């Protein structure tokens, strides 16, 4: 079934062209990850990064696909674009002008996209300058400076190089979205994370060959990984469907309405935003401590490293907070209730208006609790595996949520292209029947 579905891809010229175009641009991105920024001592930089595991630098390096560790032209990765997008999305709720643009259809969306690009360049300049300043103060454990010739020239060159790299990645992502398959920005992050898998697999086989890890432990670990991925797929597709009934309306001599539908509320409405924000806040002291030698900051940084009890408790607490905060910002039950009332819709057994808004809010609050527990469990999993079970690679957390989510969305888009041209998809039955319902 799945094999025949993949075979059908190459029978559709447009879909084949889109997929090949996507792969070509992802290869360009991976080549750029290995193009170095001038003026850096690579050996000293690599030695420095070995001492900064578990800091915000490590988080950024994960999203840049290893480009930050090499300090390539793509060192900033796509994080400035993600940050600008999140900021614009949050400002849309608070600034009337942006809110009006978001409701103006295609033209408004293009304007917000343009603002996002400007914000990306601005954030890239700020972050590039910060990195250039930080690099000049970095030394390897042996005392070798990371920057060969520090000064204003190095700072300007680094800012221009890194900003141009981020702008190019942003362009690649937009081209993939428009002419390829899937969301380009998400696929770029996906590619950066997945490219680290061969090294993790190779490290596991090395430990297996030396006897440091038994074959039974590898089998158990593999089964657990499969179960975790299946659980994430189930939860990411899980939703609570609130039934909605529309009253019949007579317009002239015709009767309209009377149909039944539903409001799909996702269990994990906020996606990967909560763990990204939570990691950034908690790891900030550890990152600052990498640049300074103040004793109390070093102690705070050690307490905030993954695996410590304080880190895990704060991490889970921030994930819960941002799950509820981001859901409240992006989903307004009162607007949904008002729109339903205007269109003659109602939830059976619930009065239209405020009662409907309160009901939706109550349901959303409950399923968000389940979503927060699920995200917290997946994000704490890597620390548990690495500290308690000595797993030799990073598995779980934000990276796994991104990989699974992007894979689901991309497969769904390929499936829609195939079904639209009357070809059999990856599964014979509709994937909607497999979605979790709560």
UniProtKB/TrEMBL annotation:
<keyword id="KW-1003">Cell membrane</keyword>
<dbReference type="InterPro" id="IPR030659">
    <property type="entry name" value="SecY_CS"/>
</dbReference>
<dbReference type="InterPro" id="IPR026593">
    <property type="entry name" value="SecY"/>
</dbReference>
<comment type="subunit">
    <text>Component of the Sec protein translocase complex. Heterotrimer consisting of SecY, SecE and SecG subunits. The heterotrimers can form oligomers, although 1 heterotrimer is thought to be able to translocate proteins. Interacts with the ribosome. Interacts with SecDF, and other proteins may be involved. Interacts with SecA.</text>
</comment>
<feature type="transmembrane region" description="Helical">
    <location>
        <begin position="115"/>
        <end position="135"/>
    </location>
</feature>
<dbReference type="InterPro" id="IPR023201">
    <property type="entry name" value="SecY_dom_sf"/>
</dbReference>
<protein>
    <recommendedName>
        <fullName>Protein translocase subunit SecY</fullName>
    </recommendedName>
</protein>
<keyword id="KW-0813">Transport</keyword>
<feature type="transmembrane region" description="Helical">
    <location>
        <begin position="184"/>
        <end position="201"/>
    </location>
</feature>
<keyword id="KW-1133">Transmembrane helix</keyword>
<feature type="transmembrane region" description="Helical">
    <location>
        <begin position="70"/>
        <end position="95"/>
    </location>
</feature>
<feature type="transmembrane region" description="Helical">
    <location>
        <begin position="276"/>
        <end position="297"/>
    </location>
</feature>
<dbReference type="InterPro" id="IPR002208">
    <property type="entry name" value="SecY/SEC61-alpha"/>
</dbReference>
<keyword id="KW-0811">Translocation</keyword>
<dbReference type="GO" id="GO:0005886">
    <property type="term" value="C:plasma membrane"/>
</dbReference>
<dbReference type="Pfam" id="PF00344">
    <property type="entry name" value="SecY"/>
</dbReference>
<feature type="transmembrane region" description="Helical">
    <location>
        <begin position="147"/>
        <end position="172"/>
    </location>
</feature>
<dbReference type="GO" id="GO:0043952">
    <property type="term" value="P:protein transport by the Sec complex"/>
</dbReference>
<comment type="function">
    <text>The central subunit of the protein translocation channel SecYEG. Consists of two halves formed by TMs 1-5 and 6-10. These two domains form a lateral gate at the front which open onto the bilayer between TMs 2 and 7, and are clamped together by SecE at the back. The channel is closed by both a pore ring composed of hydrophobic SecY resides and a short helix (helix 2A) on the extracellular side of the membrane which forms a plug. The plug probably moves laterally to allow the channel to open. The ring and the pore may move independently.</text>
</comment>
<keyword id="KW-0812">Transmembrane</keyword>
<feature type="transmembrane region" description="Helical">
    <location>
        <begin position="213"/>
        <end position="234"/>
    </location>
</feature>
<keyword id="KW-0653">Protein transport</keyword>
<feature type="transmembrane region" description="Helical">
    <location>
        <begin position="309"/>
        <end position="331"/>
    </location>
</feature>
<feature type="transmembrane region" description="Helical">
    <location>
        <begin position="391"/>
        <end position="412"/>
    </location>
</feature>
<dbReference type="GO" id="GO:0065002">
    <property type="term" value="P:intracellular protein transmembrane transport"/>
</dbReference>
<comment type="similarity">
    <text>Belongs to the SecY/SEC61-alpha family.</text>
</comment>
<feature type="transmembrane region" description="Helical">
    <location>
        <begin position="363"/>
        <end position="385"/>
    </location>
</feature>
<dbReference type="GO" id="GO:0006605">
    <property type="term" value="P:protein targeting"/>
</dbReference>
<keyword id="KW-0472">Membrane</keyword>
């Amino acid at each position: 079934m799945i094999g025949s579905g993949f075979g059908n891809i190459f029978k559709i010229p447009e879909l084949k062209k889109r997929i090949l175009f996507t792969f070509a641009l992802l290869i360009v991105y991976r080549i750029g990850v290995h193009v170095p920024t001038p003026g850096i001592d690579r050996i000293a930089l690599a030695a420095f990064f070995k001492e900064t595991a578990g800091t915000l630098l490590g988080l950024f390096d994960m999203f840049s696909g290893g480009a930050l560790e090499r300090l390539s032209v793509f060192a900033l990765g796509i994080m400035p674009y993600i940050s600008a997008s999140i900021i614009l999305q949050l400002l849309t709720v608070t600034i009337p002008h942006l809110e009006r643009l978001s409701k103006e259809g295609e033209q408004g969306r293009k304007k917000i996209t343009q603002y996002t690009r400007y914000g990306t360049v601005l954030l890239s300049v700020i972050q590039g300058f910060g990195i250039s300043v930080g690099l000049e103060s970095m030394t390897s454990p042996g005392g070798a400076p990371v920057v060969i010739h520090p000064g204003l020239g190095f700072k300007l060159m680094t800012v221009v190089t890194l900003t141009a790299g981020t702008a190019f990645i942003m362009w690649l992502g937009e081209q993939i979205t428009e002419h390829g398959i899937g969301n380009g920005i998400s696929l770029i992050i996906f590619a950066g994370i997945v490219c680290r898998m061969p090294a993790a697999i190779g490290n596991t086989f090395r430990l297996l060959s030396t006897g440091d890890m038994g074959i039974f432990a590898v089998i158990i670990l593999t089964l657990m990984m499969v179960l975790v991925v299946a659980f994430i797929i189930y939860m990411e597709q899980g939703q609570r469907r609130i039934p909605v009934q529309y009253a019949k309306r007579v317009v002239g001599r015709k009767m309209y309405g009377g149909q039944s539908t539903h409001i799909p509320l996702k269990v994990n409405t906020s996606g990967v935003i909560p763990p990204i924000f939570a990691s950034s806040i908690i790891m900030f002291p550890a990152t600052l401590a990498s640049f300074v030698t103040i004793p109390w900051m070093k102690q705070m940084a050690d307490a905030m490293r993954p695996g410590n009890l304080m880190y895990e408790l704060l991490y889970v607490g921030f994930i819960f907070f941002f799950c509820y905060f981001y859901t409240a910002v992006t989903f307004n039950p009162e607007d949904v209730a008002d729109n339903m009332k205007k269109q003659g819709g109602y939830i059976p057994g619930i009065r239209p208006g405020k009662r409907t808004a309160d009901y939706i809010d109550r349901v959303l609050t409950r399923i968000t609790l389940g979503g927060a527990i699920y995200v917290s469990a997946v994000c704490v999993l890597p620390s548990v595996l690495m500290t308690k079970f000595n797993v030799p690679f990073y598995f779980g957390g934000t990276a796994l949520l991104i990989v699974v989510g992007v894979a689901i969305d991309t497969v769904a888009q390929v499936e829609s292209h195939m079904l639209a041209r009357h070809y059999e998809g990856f599964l014979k039955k509709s994937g909607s029947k497999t979605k979790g319902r709560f």
